[in-house]
Design a protein that fits this description.
By secondary structure, the chain is mainly β. 14% of the residues lie in helices and 40% in strands. Strands 12-11-10-9-13 form a five-stranded antiparallel β-sheet, with no helix packed on it. The protein has a four-stranded antiparallel β-sheet with strand order 2-5-1-6. A two-stranded antiparallel sheet has the order 3-4.
Length: 170
């Protein structure tokens, strides 16, 4: 995989069904940077479990280019790409923070890495939601991807369940 520049301005492109590999290959041939986060998916087929990689955002990939230089219509005409997502006729950039966090969560090949392992007793900070920036203690970790944390609010300890993606180690 080519080295991605997070500082670039990234846009969202829709690709044709099951054409993510073709779209990425053809965009890279035209010297566009692409970022396609992938996640593992396990399905049962013929009595066996098969693990495959599939796009994290079904039907969409990120493309970096300089909109001031124009030429973005080449992306819409790329084999495998349906269109750039746009508003009022112009493609709109994806927020920098979203792209940088996604890239940090992926390996060199764009595969989504598992969240850092948490254990009971860890101090964590919530990164989003109604309790953003609150510090809590991990009480219990369920196998269904739910983490129970103890939060100190107004002198009382409150137990809440959160998804591990919103937690950061302190």
């Amino acid at each position: 995989m080519q080295h991605l520049q997070i500082e670039s301005i990234w846009f969202l492109a829709q690709f044709k069904p099951n054409c993510h590999k073709i779209a990425v290959r053809n965009l890279r041939r035209q010297n566009f940077q692409t970022f396609l986060p992938m996640q593992e998916e396990t399905k049962r087929r013929s009595g066996q479990f098969i693990t495959t990689l599939r796009p994290l955002f079904s039907g969409y990939l990120f493309v970096a280019f300089d909109i001031s230089k124009g030429g973005w219509s080449a992306i819409n005409n790329t084999y495998g790409v349906t269109r750039l997502v746009n508003f009022c006729g112009d493609p709109q950039p994806v927020p920098f923070d979203l792209i940088s966090r996604l890239m940090q969560r992926c390996d060199e090949d764009g595969k989504l890495l598992p969240p850092p392992t948490l254990k009971v007793g860890d101090m964590v900070k919530m990164s989003s939601g109604p309790f953003a920036e609150f510090v809590a203690t991990v009480e219990k970790i369920n196998p269904d991807q739910r983490v129970w944390v103890l939060l100190d609010m107004l002198g009382r300890t409150t137990r809440i369940a959160v998804h591990p993606d919103v937690l950061q180690m302190v």
